[in-house]
Amino acid sequence: MIANKKKFFLGLAMMAVFAVVLVIFFSPIFNGRNGLVYLDDLYNSISKGSAYYIVKLKDDIQPLAGSDVALTLKLKTPEQARQTALLLQKAGARVNQSQNTLEASGDLGQILASCLEDADAMYINDGPKIASKYGYDERRVMYNWWTAAKEMDNDLKKQKKFKAADIVATVGKKAVETAYNYYKIEPLRISDRYGIVIFSLIFYVVYTVWYGFAFMYMFEGWGMQLDH
């Protein structure tokens, strides 16, 4: 039995509006994308525009220029080891492969400079340049650099070269991982889309509150009350 028809039907009408907006939001009306995908792409583009650290990292690796190291890298498979060996050889390192293990030696600064060069190309979505350089998929190249960075970090720590290990780890996280994750996303500054950003935040708050009030009015219309 409906105790308060005015409140109940007001809540029902609000819930109907909520449902209509929800259907529209999940329809492909934003250049073939629904609202959720559109906003996800938008915020990914904005975050990419503020996550470019490669220029600073190029300065950070300068102290390692001319620093000769001998490294042991254990990869998952012999094929990954072969692919990773190509990366290190292009960076001027001497590499010997035994199954899935690489014994590499060379200038650590030069190796990291080559890594950053590839990450930079990936960051600006120039994947074909990387694929052409190594002869296999650019995403796989970045994954192999990321894995190599982890292995170099571990081996340098074993050698008690902690400062070098920290720099290698930072390159892996802030350059290689970032370039991989943001590949094919066009960077934007928040000032380029501040209107839609503000609107989306206001919309989210209003839409959530609207849903809450719709439920509240419907339950109060049924005669349900919260007692303190």
What does this structure look like?
This protein has helices spanning 5-25, 35-49, 54-60, 78-90, 108-123, 127-134, 138-158, 162-181, 194-222; strands spanning 68-74, 94-98, 101-107. It has two domains: 5-48 and 187-222, no CATH class; 54-181, no CATH class. Helices cover 66% and strands 8% of the residues. The mean pLDDT is 91. It has a three-stranded antiparallel β-sheet. The chain has nine helices and three strands, in the order αααβαββααααα. The protein has 228 residues and is mainly α.
% residues in beta strands: 5-15%
Rounded to an integer in angstroms, the radius of gyration calculated over CA atoms is: 27 Å
Broad structural category: mainly alpha
Helix content: 55-70%
Overall mean pLDDT score?
91
Strand order of the largest sheet: 1-3-2
Beta-strand segment tally:
3
Topology as H/E string? HHHEHEEHHHHH
Contiguous uncertain segments of 5+ residues:
none
Count of individual helical segments: 9
**Which assembly state applies to the chains in this document?**
single chain
Q: What can be said about the biggest beta sheet?
A: 3 strands, antiparallel
Q: N-to-C terminal Cα separation, in Å?
A: 24 Å
Cα shape: elongated
Number of domains: 2
What is the structure about, briefly put?
By secondary structure, the chain is mostly helical. It has helices at about 5-25, 35-50, 55-60, 80-90, 110-125, 125-135, 140-160, 160-180, 195-220; strands spanning about 70-75, 95-100, 100-105. It folds into two domains: about 5-50 and about 185-220, no CATH class; about 55-180, no CATH class.
